[in-house]
Structure formats: C-alpha cells, structure tokens
Amino acid sequence: MSWAEVGSRWKAKLSQMDWYLCFGLIFLFLVLIGLSMAAWKLNLILHDADALPIEAVAIKGERTHTSDAEIQAALQDLMQRSFFSADVNQVQEALEALPWVYQASVRREWPAKLRVYLVEQHVVAHWNGDAWLNQLGEVFDAPQKEDIGPLPRLAGPEGQSKLVLTTYRQVSELLKINGFDLEGLSLSPRHAWHGVLASGITLELGREDKMARIQRFINVYPTLIKQDKDVAKVDLRYDTGLAVGWVNAQKRASK
C-alpha cells in the first residue's frame, strides 16, 4: 500500500469523525437550549401568582388580642405572590411585627396553603405607665385592651425590667401569705425600691434588705392598725424601726 493510499484513508476517517463530532455538538446544544427553556417556563409558572396562588392561610394557636383583620392586613402584600415564591421568613417577620404576637412559625402545605402557628404575648404587668411586661420580664409595646384584668404596675430604669419583675414576685409572695396585696413596685434610678399595697399604703424599702424590711412591716402592722388613724406611708429605710405617715397628717400637710 502506497503512502498516498494510506493518506487518503486517514483523510476519510478524519472527515467521518468531524461529522460525528459536529452532529454530537449540535445535538448537545439543542438539548441544553431545550432544558433552559423548560427551566425558564417552570420558573415563570412557579412565580405566577395566578397559576399557583396561595389559596388559604390556616392560623393555629390561642389568640386573645390579635384579630383576623390584623393578620390579613399584615399579610396583604405577601399574599399576592405565588405559593412557591412566597418567603415564609418574611411572612413570619410580618406576623411577629404585630404588637400582641410573641412568636410565629410558618410552613407551606401542599398544594396551596400556608399553615401558621401564633403565640401571643403573655402579659403579666404594666411597665413604666404605657408599656407591658410578659412573663419573661421582656418589655413590649401594644395598644391598651379593655379585656385585660387588673395587673400590677411596675416601673424602673431601662434594662431593669427582669430584675423588677423577679423582685415583685418575691415581695408579693411574702406579702400575700400574710394577707397583703402588692399593687405596684418601682425601682428608682438610684436603685431604691418603692412599693404600693392594694390598700393604698406606700412602702419605702430603700436599696438593701428588701425582704427583711417587708417582714418588719408585717410584724409591726398589727400594732399600727390599733391606732385611731389610717396608715398612708411606712418608711422602712432604717436599720431598726420605721417611720409612719398617717392619712390625716398627710391631708393637713397638703393643705
């Protein structure tokens, strides 16, 4: 076999291989275009609120202060999205921004529902007049509600809410087992404690030995009520003893 024949055979093979390669590349290119188009159309469908709308939102959890109207208003814009494009984290944030909602959890439920579980704030006290405290001593702002029963009025510097609530619980428990109701407790910027009983008696407790001073008041109260006067104020900021302000004396002083 001559070199010319060998060369022609190799040229024929290379020419055949080039055609196979071209057809293969063209086919691969067409497949990639088809997959891209399919992915693009699928993405359009998944984000089309008309094609895959959110048809319902199921709300679970005990609610006392959060209405359906408030929830609908909070989710109005987010509900315009499709089932798949709706961001459950944004839904959660929108719900937790409602004043009486403490925590919210959100999940998708096929085929077109969002399931929401709400936990409301468990309010235990007023704080600094117009705010509230929950059971953890956390401060939150929310509108006044008429259906909330009487709550203790607590006050103190910023960042001291947990301390004030804990102290209130301790002092209130000691007073309650001795027949007194603690209506309010406040901590001054100088860290002095001031209590108010449901009977209207105010207690000046100072900075230290709060529980010992409360016990001193409890011990001496039977003697105070034997007087022909009504107690207005008891100052317990002494190492021993106390000072008493009487209702009639305070009225004369105010005049």
From TrEMBL:
Compartments (UniProt record): Cell inner membrane; Membrane
Topological type in the membrane: Single-pass type II membrane protein
Pfam families in the record: FtsQ_DivIB_C, POTRA_1
TM region positions: 20-40
Keyword Membrane: yes
UniProt KW keywords: Cell cycle, Cell division, Cell inner membrane, Cell membrane, Membrane, Transmembrane, Transmembrane helix
Gene3D superfamilies xref list: Cell division protein FtsQ/DivIB, membrane protein fhac
One of the record's GO cellular component terms: plasma membrane
GO terms, biological process: cell septum assembly; FtsZ-dependent cytokinesis
Chain ranges of the POTRA domain: 52-121
Summary of subunit composition and partner proteins: Part of a complex composed of FtsB, FtsL and FtsQ.
General function of this protein: Essential cell division protein. May link together the upstream cell division proteins, which are predominantly cytoplasmic, with the downstream cell division proteins, which are predominantly periplasmic. May control correct divisome assembly.
Name used for this protein in its record: Cell division protein FtsQ
